Amino acid sequence: MDDCSSDIIEQARQLFMHCDTDNCGYLTRQALDRLSDRLPLTMSQLDFVFNLLDKDKNGQLTLDEFIQGFGHFLVDKAANNLVLDEEIDEQYNQIISSLDPENVLKSYEQVKHIWKYMKLANSHLLPEFEDMLRAIMKEVNTARVEYENMERMIQNEIIFNKSAVNNVE
């Protein structure tokens, strides 16, 4: 069994133990209500889940029934999170590409971490953060142009001085 599967089984086992407060080895529908603080499910959805997991329809979920059922749920959730992470990474890359075509910020993982956090949190500050990044990139690009202009001026001065020295000889 791989680490991912054992992690999922362990998560399901912990959820089961969270609900099985009297350690009877099974869960009733009412005991499953304790999951409402850990899972984004309504009471009617919990009813549906309970009925779906209760394979033998005896009104009790054993640890095995619970792990089999919630294991599938947790695998699906992990897969959805992976897809979401990939989508968020792609959105970040698109934003950075449009702001920073010369990849000045590509090496700054902290910028990506902050942007991703704000995106996941649906922060109203995300547009302001992106505006700040635009302003920073404008400053960086302005400084780069000034540096390149200075470099050209110095190169021209060097060429002029070499030419003057050659004319003197």
Automatic annotation (TrEMBL):
GO terms for cellular component: trans-Golgi network membrane. PROSITE patterns: EF_HAND_1 (PS00018), EF_HAND_2 (PS50222). Transmembrane segments: none annotated. SMART domains: EFh (SM00054). GO terms for molecular function: calcium ion binding. InterPro entries: Ca-binding_regulatory (IPR051111), EF-hand-dom_pair (IPR011992), EF_Hand_1_Ca_BS (IPR018247), EF_hand_dom (IPR002048). Pfam families: EF-hand_7. Gene3D superfamilies: EF-hand. Keywords: Calcium, Repeat. Residues 41-76 form the EF-hand domain. It comes from the Eukaryota. This is EF-hand domain-containing protein.
